[in-house]
Amino acid sequence: MSDFNFQPSYEAVIDNTPRVKTVSFGDGYEQRVADGINITKDMWSVVFQRPVAEIDVIESFFKAKSGVDSFTWTPSGRSEIKVLCRNWSRRIIAPNVGVISTKFEQVFE
User: Fold this and answer.
1) For residues 7 and 80, is the Cβ–Cβ distance under 8 A?
2) What does DSSP say about strands 88-94 and 97-106: parallel, antiparallel, or unpaired?
3) Facing residues of 99 across strands?
4) Among 3, 36, 39, 95, whose Cα sits 20 to 30 Å from the Cα of 17?
5) pLDDT tens across 10-50, in order?
6) Domain extent for 50
7) Rounded CA gap, 106 and 53, in Å?
8) Is residue 6 part of a domain?
9) From residue 104, how far is each of 23, 26, 32, 49, 101 by CA, in Å?
């Protein structure tokens, strides 16, 4: 069971940028090679819209992890992964309704 059991309120967006080492030559040619064994990690953009009491719980979880400790999360329709939440933003959009927007960065430990 995942450490973090909340699912985003909206569709989660996945960004990927593989780590690649590139050498460019003077005649316009370049050579590329994968940088490591886990070169592609998912970066999930997630938004949680909930009653303020639940937003407080989610934010407390993120504060406890402090952007240092990873946690497990199961994206909808996928397998459990380890992620890190480095920062987040919180706002109130209506009386007793809050939103937290963040990115979950997949980590390999």
Assistant:
1) no
2) antiparallel
3) 49, 91
4) 3
5) 889 999 989 999 999 988 899 999 999 999 989 999 999 99
6) 13-106
7) 27
8) no
9) 30, 39, 27, 16, 10
3-state SS class at 103: strand
Which of helix, strand or coil describes residue 21?
Answer: strand
- pLDDT tens digits, residue range 42-76? 999 999 999 999 999 999 999 999 999 999 999 98
Cα distances (Å, whole numbers) of residue 62 to 24, 26, 50: 41, 47, 16
Domain tally, the chain: 1
Does a structural domain hold residue 51? yes
Q: For residues 21, 70, 73 and 50, what is the CA-based torsion angle, rounded to 10 degrees?
A: -110
For the question of whether the overall pTM of this predicted structure is more than 0.70, the answer is: yes
**Encoding tokens for residue 41?**
């990690």
Q: Is 10 left (phi over 0), alpha (psi -120 to 50) or beta?
A: beta
pLDDT of residue 1: 64
> Does residue 8 sit within a domain?
no
Is 2 part of a structural domain of the chain? no
- The span from the CA of 63 to the CA of 67, in Å, is 8
